[in-house]
Amino acid sequence: MNVRRSAAVLAATVAIGTATPAVAVSPSPSPSLPSGLYGSSDPTYDGVWRQSLALIALYRVHAEPAAATVDWLAGQQCESGAFPAFRANPAKACDAKVMVDTNSTAAAAQALSAVGGHGTAVTKAVTWLKSVQNKDGGWGYTPGGASDANSTSVVIGALVTQHAPVSTIRNGAKSPYDALLKLSLPCADGGAFAYEPDKKGKLTANADATAAAVVGALGQGMVSVKAGDKKNAACTDAARPTPKDAAANGSAYLAKAVAKDGHLTSALPGSENQPDYGNTADAVVALAAQGGTAAATGPLRWLERNSAKWAEQNGPAAYAQLILAAEAGGADPSDFGGTDLVKQLTATGPAPVTASQDDSGTSVWWLVGAGLAAGAGVGFLLSSRNKRKQP
Predict the structure, then answer these.
(1) pTM for the structure as a whole
(2) CA 66 – CA 370 distance, rounded (Å)
(3) pLDDT per residue as tens digits for the range 57-67
(4) How far apart (Å, rounded) are the C-alpha atoms in residues 193 and 155?
(5) Which of 128, 135, 172, 304 is most open to solvent, judged by the fewest CB atoms within 10 Å of its CB?
(6) CA 312, CA 319: separation in Å to the nearest integer?
């Protein structure tokens, strides 16, 4: 469900052709933040992504966003239907210098589908995504890039908005599910998903990719994810595994990974292992999507006890992730370890204001921008969709 992307890291990866591990980066406040944007940090690498997550999270808890926030996101779309991570001048037509990507496009399609009233924009985004589907049925972060589990999964979430079976979206004979199955590991290797094969074609278990791929393999997305009813049993190899088999095995891997400490761990070269809050939130969603709310209780309770400072430091996307985890896991986002996540998220952007009823007794809404509050920045994003190895 909640597929987090480090656009900054990925941009560097594209430039040098190698995987670059995520690092903690101090957000750089932008001197000219767009009105309507959630958060106060430079949106260059994550504007569309964090805006999309915020709108989806508010939709999931039935909270009304300010109209300006939706308008800002819709205005980022290029004529082709694709979205970049951010473009400072939406009035200027996109050209070859505007770097569009599958993750921003798929997340925005899901967000605009959720808020409603943007059917044409959503259809154009999905049509563009279909046009850049790889021959193996999947997607990479950049159009034509090697398929990876994270990008393929977030695109599946966008495809679901069109109410067409994911299995029918094909490039030749291959569907998105074929791409995910190709990235799933046998039980001897834990049953997880890999992000993508290395240069020698080897697959390495990756908890981040697994959390995303479990939801994708179940045919769900950030907007549509719901609690499942299948137990997270031990990994089982099948002669001809189905997407649901792979999802069950991936869920079993995640359950084992969080069993000891209650969370996933970030292992960055040259630094001590630390709790990975964002990927733990993703794991909660994946465990709940497969096995129901009870399957996600352990890591969800850990997040309730420990994630407040992380979310405060990392801003709107982090709050959105926790809302999505709480909602999927059966917790109350308005009282998550004593924190009202919805209130905190709303405070990072222009908040809607409710007017009194008119003379006829009909409720009228005025949505006005209240200015940008001091939300923290892209630290969340820079802990995310990279190719680092997970336990």
Answers:
(1) 0.85
(2) 9
(3) 999 999 999 99
(4) 17
(5) 172
(6) 8
